[in-house]
Design goal:
Chain lengths: ~450, ~290
């Protein structure tokens, strides 16, 4: 930078500069020493996971939304020694949970005792030790959590937590896909709620002609595959073991749904736009006639002042759609999980905490925004929602959908959402159709699965 | 005097050894050893593994294209703007423009990407008319893979070019007025002056800029990483080589594979820089 200006160094300036450099050097040295000291302290305090004590404090990791769960626990048991730390919950495939645990594995210390994750596929790695380390997740169904509690979860709710018969986490909430519809608009237009995917497609085409601008769904989100392809029994993500997956996207089940989506996108009633984009809100507020999507759409999109903000008494839930002549199954978009560390110095307290936040009414019924995975809490949660007066019809169909989640779509370590986003959403934006893109999707899933150590069939 | 120069150098040297040389050597060690068998020597196994990864070649293409767009824009436009500002008559205008050019560079890398997320989204963008006129109705259309190298080049140019314009301006100031006067008396206009006098005389600065930019450019990370998160993974999280190294280390828990990618990047950046150093005559004595 000598080119800029010839800065004349006066003796005073030089002295000041030298002093500054000295301070900086000192600061660096001091910083180095301090950080060295801290790391030693941490490793001695939480290092030996073998010594377990009933009064040892536990550290709990939650995301910002779930801080309420930890607060509820503290209110109920104010004397339990619990430290709560907030992190991003691993949202949007950030992988923070896994990344941090691997770093703690390398360091040999520092693991939190309880971790909340917004993702439902973490058991796939947390149940496996990497590089010869002990798996992070403790097994919960061999005494840590009572059998009565484990069996109290909705049917299939713990599937994403289960690897080879062992349960490694408890579900916080379920995210079953249902058919949302706006009863007021449907009545106004004189339409009846479809009961099969064929009827849904026909109505979607009809809406596009009779009421252009109104939509029956969207397909621009990365979890589009979980809403539609999963519900159609498309075998794109069949996790058959800890490290084996079957990927088959050229089946009728995949093609019929891809073709339905292509058809409605061309018609204009199912845009390639994500529901969390400003564009979606500005274009389609008041224009959503129907929308297949997870149960949490209610709080996230419909009954949310900064999203669609649909007034009370309009939205209703219909049963998941079957294809004609088949039984209805449905997909699942997320549904968070709670883990207990296998390194915990106080597993009893960790188990007590996790049992409380997943099953106790004080959180799951009174505070939780999502549909509880624990069946008894879910019943009360639904009753509470019904009495709120927001929905046009009772939420009974949502309860029924909770046990219809198709088991042929698993929870692997790789993100199906990321793969869909970079192959299918961009492909469609480039002018291709989903049917044309199915082979690309197959290849992308298989490639990614192999990189993550899966055997692909 | 010599003691003072050592004191000035010391903090840099300490930091460079601790955060540059030592991690570099550690990466070199990791890249030739295996994670199983307590770090046994595995020759080029980690390198063949990452080179055979289905994500590697696409990432190389992405980064190369981006570098091409960015470097050309940088070398041509920065030199052009510096010459224009330098040739302005009004002193106040010169100072004002330099400040304006420099301003975007004052934003840290990540925050400038956040700003661009809004600029690129037709529903929120101040230039949405322009974006829509180019046939892109929604954010998804803007960030399709074929547009990304240009988008990243624009973002990088916007953040980085201003600082370089100021440096080039300084370099132009250093050209002695006698040379310029002599050329003018010989009848050279602004164009010939720029082409035959000014550009050859700041050649070293241009190659210096190219070297620093190559080193920064092959490490493309923040832009695609943030865009990937903001677009909910429509922009892939394995777009650039550095992102791939990140995935190896923190998603696949394979620090050895990650180190192999870093060493490859280092090798490429060094080779490219060598070309500019020899061609640009950076270390020639005047």
């Amino acid at each position: 930078m000598h080119g800029t200006r010839n800065l004349q160094f006066t003796p005073r300036l030089r002295k000041a500069a030298l002093g500054g450099v000295g301070v900086l050097t000192l600061a660096v040295l001091v910083a180095g020493c301090t950080s060295g000291n801290t790391s030693t302290t941490t490793s001695t305090s939480s290092g030996p996971a073998t010594t377990q004590a009933t009064d040892a404090p536990i550290t709990v990791w939650v995301d910002a939304d779930r801080a309420a769960a930890a607060d509820a626990y503290k209110a109920a048991f104010p004397n339990d020694p619990i430290t709560v730390e907030t992190y991003d919950g691993g949202a949007n495939g950030s992988g923070t949970f896994r990344t941090k645990m691997q770093l703690f594995d390398t360091a040999g210390s520092g693991w939190p005792d309880v971790v909340f994750s917004t993702q439902n596929n973490d058991a796939s790695w947390a149940s496996q030790g990497s590089n010869g380390n002990k798996p992070f997740a403790a097994v919960l169904n061999t005494g840590a959590i009572p059998d009565a509690t484990i069996s109290g979860f909705a049917k299939g709710a713990l599937d994403p937590c289960t690897v080879d018969g062992k349960v490694y986490c408890l579900r916080n909430d379920l995210a079953q896909v249902v058919l949302w519809y706006n009863k007021t608009l449907m009545d106004q237009f004189g339409y009846t709620v479809p009961t099969t995917w064929e009827e849904y497609q026909a109505l979607g085409e009809k809406v596009a002609k009779e009421h252009p601008g109104y939509i029956v769904g969207t397909q621009g989100d990365t979890f589009t595959s979980e809403i539609y392809m999963w519900s159609s029994k498309c075998e794109a993500n069949h996790i058959t073991g800890a490290t084996s997956v079957t990927v088959k996207t050229d089946s009728t089940e995949c093609k019929r749904m891809a073709s339905l989506l292509d058809d409605l996108r061309t018609a204009g009633s199912s845009p390639n736009i994500g529901v969390f984009t400003p564009e979606f809100v500005s274009t389609y507020a008041g224009k959503v006639l129907m929308m297949p999507g997870p149960i949490w759409y209610s709080g996230a999109i419909f009954n949310n002042p900064s999203s669609l903000n649909v007034p009370a008494g309009q939205m209703a839930v219909a049963a998941p759609l079957p294809w004609k002549g088949e039984d209805a199954v449905t997909g699942d978009v997320g549904g968070a999980t709670w883990f207990i560390s296998s390194h915990s110095a106080n597993p009893a307290l960790a188990a007590k905490f996790v049992e409380f936040v997943t099953t106790n009414d004080a959180y799951q019924v009174d505070l939780a925004p999502g549909y509880p995975a624990f069946a008894a809490a879910a019943d009360k949660w639904v009753a509470k929602q019904n009495s709120s007066g927001y929905y046009a019809t009772p939420l009974d169909q949502a309860v029924a959908a909770g046990s219809l989640i198709w088991s042929g779509w698993g929870s692997g370590v790789f993100s199906q959402e990321a793969i869909w986003g970079k192959t299918m959403t961009t492909g469609v934006a480039d002018g291709k159709t989903l049917v044309q893109l199915l082979p690309d999707w197959q290849k992308a899933i298989a490639d990614q699965a192999q990189v993550d150590g899966y055997t692909v069939k | 005097m010599s003691i003072a120069s050592y004191v000035f150098l010391a903090p840099y040297l300490v930091l460079m050894v601790v955060f540059g040389v030592m991690p570099g050597l550690y990466a070199l060690y990791l890249s030739f050893t295996s994670r199983t068998g307590n770090g046994s020597f595995v020759a080029f196994q980690n390198f063949t593994k990452v080179l055979g990864d289905f994500r590697f070649m696409p990432a190389v293409q992405h980064v190369s294209l981006y570098l091409l767009f960015w470097l050309v824009a940088l070398v041509v436009l920065v030199t052009f703007f510096a010459l224009v500002v330098h040739g302005l008559g009004s002193r106040h205008l010169r100072t004002g423009l330099r400040l304006v050019y420099y301003l975007p560079g004052a934003l840290a890398g990540a925050s400038s990407v956040m700003l661009w997320l809004f600029v690129l989204d037709p529903t929120a963008s101040p230039v949405s008319i322009l974006i829509k006129a180019m046939g892109m109705a929604s954010f998804v259309n803007v960030i399709v893979p074929s547009h990304l190298p240009v988008i990243f080049a624009i973002i990088a140019f916007w953040t980085g070019a201003g600082g370089w314009i100021v440096i080039m301006y300084g370099a132009l100031n250093n050209i002695s007025t006698e040379v310029m006067e002599a050329a003018r008396i010989d009848g050279a206009g602004s164009l010939r002056l720029a082409w035959h006098i000014q550009i050859p005389m700041i050649r070293k600065w241009i190659s210096y800029m190219a070297i620093i930019s190559i080193a920064a450019g092959v490490q493309l990370f923040v832009e695609p990483q943030l865009l990937s998160q903001a677009s909910n993974a429509i922009v892939p999280n394995d777009y650039s080589l550095n992102q791939l190294a990140y995935l190896y280390a923190f998603k696949q828990n394979d620090f050895h594979g990650s180190a192999a990618i870093s060493i490859l990047l280092l090798f490429v950046a060094l080779s490219l820089s060598a070309i500019f150093v020899t061609r640009g005559g950076l270390f020639d004595k005047d």
